Write the structure tokens for this entry.
Amino acid sequence: MYRIGQEEVEAVQRVIESQTLFRRGNPEAGHQQAVVNFESALAEKLGVSYALCLSGGGSAALTCALVGLGIGPGDEVIIPAYTYIATAAAVLSVGAVPVIVDVDETLTLDPQAVLQALTPNVKAIIPVHMVGRLANLEALLEIAKEHGVKVIEDSCQCDGGSYKGRRTGSWGDAGALSFNDFKIISCGEGGALVTNDKNIFERALAYHDSLVSFPHFGEDLSIPAFLGSQMRASEIQGAILGVQLQRLDGILADLRRIRKRFENELGDVLQVAPNNDFEGDCGVVVAFQFDEEAKARAFAKQAGGWLPIDTGRHVYSNWDMLIDNRVGHHPDMNPLNHPKNQHLRIRYSADACPRSLELLGRTVFISINPDWSEETIAQRIEQCRVA
């Protein structure tokens, strides 16, 4: 989270004073409609037909997207080697099998690696816009269309980002956003599924609450309701997010302005990492690449940067629970043991994507704060120049 203040305090106060914290209620009786209003505003901001706010973060959003698409046992889903483990966990949570493939120099899903990994068992691809950097959606969507597979955008680290002038999350069949404490906008924890597909939305809606708490709402569904889970957002979350969403474009504008200044002033001495859309990049980091890891580490130490290879569960080789087949609370609930999955690619190893590890090891990120003063920006740029 970058910015939060009195406006959020006042929005939460209004919800508390209404004494109706549950996400559904009668506005004529004082219910603030905070979640519903946020969902409407988010859908409008992203240019999608439907948005569903969730209590369970980006993981819940990805799971709901997979459920919405009907993904399950017997299906494979392609994911990148550089993403938080939650992307893989969401696939496993619906009983399907994640297939891990390489990233390219942009550190996002490599379209050529996707092509090589496609089989008739692959039902979906999940491009991940890591640290606000855009995946190559145009190429990936073309591949998906040609081969009849679905696309779920993992935009959890890219709230509000844009690809070719269109917001992330709106390109694929469904998109997932995250609002936990480490994201661009936040309510501490939470997420959202977005889509233009009514069927995906209704299946996600049913799954996220099973319509148990508000059965009357299910009367409007065009699909049969089914027993799912409980991922409802509260009015307190909605109140905070409603204000945070108003801050989003200002945050992005300042992040991008600072990132561009780093790139413009340092491009003559450092190699700026390739980017699928420099304009739409959120500006969470500025990325430099080196020809070997030793040089990257030396630079990072002097410039106050960090290497993505060092970020633990964001790198597939550190997904020991998946590699060791420790999935689910009971062996019979482990999708890797499911009879329908035994002919799929269910074996994982830490050395499966060496190209990704090499790229992650020679890239350096400088994290950006949108509230840096001009003096701080100049100092950080000079620090990078002399490193």
